[in-house]
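Changelog entry

Holo records now carry the ligand SMILES as an explicit input line rather than a separate metadata file. Below, a converted record for fe (ii) ion, shown in the new format.
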Amino acid sequence: MAAAEKKAGIADALDEQFYQINLDILESFSKYRPPLALYRFREDVARVVLFCRAGDRLSNEQVEELARLVEEGLIFVSRADHPVYVKHISYQLDLVLVDKNLHESEIADIFAQAITRRLAEFFSQPVPLVFAKLWTDLMVLTEYLFQDIHRVRALQKRLHTEHNLENHSFDCGVLGLALHAKVHAAAYEGGEVKRKHLDHLVCGLFVHDLGLTKVPGFILGKDKGLTMDERAKVQRHVPAGVEMLGKLDLRFPEVEECVRDHHERLDGSGYPQRKIAPDISHLARLCGLVDSYCAMVTQRPYAPAMEPMKAMATLMQDPGYDPELTRALQALVLTTGKRK
Ligand SMILES: [Fe+2]
Ligand SMILES: [Fe+2]
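Structure line, unchanged by the conversion:
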């Protein structure tokens, strides 16, 4: 049997219980103290044995031996260590693209953790340097999804249940993408969608509410109705967000549409410009729809979570939303069979 074939066979057999790691992944670990137990496949006895425990201090010789064994495809980590591995890899998200042994559901866990954390970092410090990290991770996500846009379905099963700005933004990003994938499935299959368009619309969906970082926390956390003045302050998050895009030098039309128009409604009942249907882009309609839905089905300080079908029924009756998109979202929510 050829060496490569033999290795592939080994990997297949072990795939259920272990992840095989490659040099990129090894290099992302602390060199002398791997963060989780490593296992070595012993060809002579045809089984996996412990190479080192989590946090063990390795000697120089062991470090060299480890690199050689990894190169030969003989080093594994246990799937039982999934939480440690997910956390670790989520700090260096591009590894997801090179690790061929991760299952789709595991990749979805990693993306959910990484992107939510990056969003939280950005919202607590919305400056270009921190945004750059979020952008890098979003581009790993689009690289992954562009290969098969329907991969977003696994992410859709990982929406958050607790309400805060990063969770809400992640949920809107993912559900918005799922809806986009559903509505434009044929265009993806026909190769008509440009990667750049996906990059920019993903960014727009995930950061649509960045202006909320300028609204005082006590207003957002209020469990009672807002005063006129407080409501005006909340609504200011839209122009504040547009202004922030300028400072971040984020001047893509897709991002601007999401940030500027996600509270506009087709019947002119929205804000801040009270635009009407022809002036609201398809993407802004989509963003506004998933934004409302995600807020409605999550418990917020001022309102309990609504049942998904009840939320959908409310949206269907509201002339502010695009009926075609609303029907597509309802179908999506129904077929997923999940809470959201
Ligand atoms: Fe908003
Ligand atoms: Fe929102």
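Spot-checked after migration. The chain has a mean pLDDT of 91. Residues 168, 172, 208-209, 291 surround fe (ii) ion (ligand 2) (CB under 6 Å).
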